[in-house]
Design brief:
Strand content: 15-25%
Number of helices: 4
Largest sheet: 7 strands, antiparallel
Structural class: alpha+beta
CATH superfamily: 7,8-Dihydro-6-hydroxymethylpterin-pyrophosphokinase HPPK
Helix content: 25-40%
Number of strands: 7
């Protein structure tokens, strides 16, 4: 399984709201040769680390691609740049954030190439809540624990609230 986390908390360069940017990012994945198989609902999430900023919109998608992990991550970074992402500091506000969470259970310590699985995914409620929605039995390749079990062990803050918009667990052709 290949898992991509999606998030935004600033308007896009076109002025689009973070939710609209996240939706548009799903379309951009397909144009980059990364087909969305299933996606979560969207979640409104409290910022981590730098609390004096807007709340985020977050979700996850399982995808298929013929691209390898390096090329997949490079495609994600190109999409982020197209949506105005500036990499200033960890936890900073952003127009779009696309993280490669898992690439078919691959274990990599990077560099070169991405660190896999994502080194902090198991600590992030904003990743695990949407992931547990669509793939509760997904197992962290290093820890061997399911998304649902890791989510259950996290504290209730920062808050993660499912919002009405989105298509929970929607499967794509």
């Amino acid at each position: 399984m290949i898992i991509v986390a999606i998030g935004a908390n600033l308007p896009g360069p076109d002025g689009a709201a973070p939710l609209a940017t996240c939706e548009a990012a799903l379309d951009a994945l397909a144009a980059a040769g990364i087909r969305v198989v299933r996606r979560s609902s969207w979640y409104r999430t409290e910022p981590v680390g730098e609390p004096d900023q807007p709340w985020f919109i977050n979700g996850v998608a399982t995808v298929r691609t013929g691209l390898g992990p390096e090329a997949t991550l490079a495609a994600l970074h190109r999409i982020e740049a197209r949506f105005g992402r500036a990499r200033l500091a960890a936890g900073a506000p952003r127009t779009l954030d696309l993280d490669l969470i898992d690439y078919r259970g691959m274990l990599r310590d990077g560099p070169p190439g991405p660190v896999l699985p994502h080194p902090r995914a198991h600590e992030r409620r904003f990743v695990l809540a949407p992931l547990a929605e669509i793939a509760p039995q997904w197992r962290h390749p290093r820890l061997g624990r399911t998304a649902a079990a890791m989510l259950a062990d996290l504290p209730p803050r920062p808050a993660v609230l499912r919002i009405a918009r989105g298509s929970r667990g929607r499967r794509f052709p």
